[in-house]
Amino acid sequence: MQLKDRQKDILDMIIREHIKTAKPISSKEVVEELGFKASPATIRHEMLELDRFGYLEQPHTSAGRVPTDQGYRFFVDNLLEEVALPPKYQKIIKEVFQIKNGGSFLRELTQAASDFADSFAMAGVFGESLVEKQGFSKTLGEPEFRENSAVRMFGQFIDEMDRESDNFFASFKNEKVFIGEENKIKDCDCLSLLVSSWEHEGGFGGYLAVIGPRRMDYQKNISLFKYIHNINFN
After folding, report:
1. Secondary structure (3-state) at 176
2. What pLDDT does 163 receive?
3. Which residues of 105-124 are buried (b: 16+ CB within 10 A; e: fewer)?
4. All structural domains of the chain with their residue ranges
5. Pair type for strands 191-199 and 205-213
6. Which residues contact 168 (CB under 8 A, 6 or more apart)?
7. Which homologous superfamily does the CATH classification assign to the domain defined by 87-229?
8. Which residues contact 193 (CB under 8 A, 6 or more apart)?
């Protein structure tokens, strides 16, 4: 479905606001709070069209709308602009990659990724049992995980990652985003996964993953993964 420019702008605005607030976004908010330059009737019509096309959906108890997997996918593939990793974190990541010991390096890399993404992160070295995890409480503190079913889903996801880490992650060279039902792990459709490989100048390589709600800040997190994947040791 080819979206009109105005529909793209509305979808972009709704997704960015939902990422920040975790709340459904109404047409009134798009006009009054977000300042979109169109009449309320026009916004309502365009949001109904985005709903009909499968980019938005309406929770049963709300007048507002939230993005679907399809909406997030369109956002990631077509609406995000590439942004640079902030200089502070460029410095942190460069310092992490100067660590020679594999265990210490993994621990610091995972901690830096978790702190930056404000989410759960895990990293491992290919061909070794060395795996580091950080940030369980960051992810479980998100509004999406107030339900026990979502907490169980998150735990199931992490368990499966542990079992299949080398097989699953070894195929990803550049950063890859899995949104909701795109995840290969059954019944984990409330989660998104961002993963990429990295190479250390010490001669070993591995993977880094960030796991969080579908509402994760994709633009911010992708900037981190691109920087790590393309890090220059000079």
Report:
1. strand
2. 77
3. bbbbbbbbbbebbbbbbbbb
4. 5-79, 87-229
5. antiparallel
6. 161, 184
7. GAF domain (3.30.450.40)
8. 177, 178, 183, 209, 210, 211
User: What does the chain come to in residues?
Assistant: 234
Write down the architecture of domain 5-79 according to CATH. Answer: Orthogonal Bundle (1.10)
Alpha carbon distance 93, 217 (integer Å) = 19
CA-to-CA distance for 65 and 233, rounded, in angstroms? 45
Q: What is residue 166's predicted lDDT score, i.e. its pLDDT?
A: 67
For residue 174 the two structure tokens come to 């550049």
Tokens standing for residue 146: 């107030």
What count of other Cβ atoms lies within 10 Å of the Cβ of residue 60? 4
Task: Provide mean pLDDT across the span 127-145.
Answer: 89
164-220 per-position pLDDT tens digit: 766 777 766 678 899 999 887 767 788 999 998 899 999 999 999 999 999 999 999
Q: Using an 8 Å Cβ cutoff, are 74 and 55 in contact?
A: yes
Encode burial over 192-221: b for 16+ CB neighbours within 10 A, e otherwise: bbbbbbbebeeeeebbbbbbbbbbbbbbeb
Q: Report the distance separating Cα 97 and Cα 90, nearest Å.
A: 11
Identity of the residue numbered 156: Q
